[in-house]
Design brief:
155 residues, 18% helix, alpha+beta
Length: 155
């Protein structure tokens, strides 16, 4: 009799386990900064930032930007400075209205450098975490399905 009761209980636990593993396919933006483009701009306009993580095409490419300080300036001007080189570009942060976007993760961040050194990070990114000292971005290449990750931390 105990064996008969054991199997339905075991089956019920199995179903609960499967239901608990279901999740959305997009990460929801977590934040200690408001999820409003103006608040994000205000956070990034303060001080200089460094890239502390850059993962592209299954490769860690952090060394490509080692030694650079990034300034997210007013009027969407982005500068990358090292001891020997300076590069200028543009940046923007907007709320996306795309139909396929997750409504809880609709902050898009664009980086555009004109020079080849910034080509690796010149993308349309999704913000998936923002704090007063860290900005975490990701983008997925639709053709290859590969996801890139980029993290800036305040210097």
């Amino acid at each position: 009799m105990k064996k008969i009761l054991f199997f339905p209980v075991l089956f019920f636990i199995f179903l609960l386990n499967i239901a608990g593993t279901c999740c959305a396919d997009e990460v929801v933006v977590t934040s200690t900064v408001d999820k409003i483009p103006d608040a994000i701009r205000s956070t990034l306009n303060q001080g200089t930032w460094k890239i502390t993580y850059f993962f592209d095409s299954k490769t860690n490419k952090l060394n490509s930007f080692s030694g650079y300080n990034f300034t997210f300036g007013l009027n969407d001007v982005l500068t990358a400075q090292s001891t020997s080189l300076d590069y200028s570009g543009k940046w923007s942060v907007i709320k996306s209205n795309k139909m396929d976007d997750n409504p809880h993760n609709d902050i898009e961040f664009t980086i555009a450098f004109l020079n080849p050194n910034g080509a690796g990070i010149s993308e349309d990114w999704s913000v998936f975490e923002i704090t007063p000292t860290q900005l975490r971005l990701r983008t997925t290449e639709s053709s290859a399905g590969e996801t890139k990750y980029l993290t800036f931390e305040k210097s």
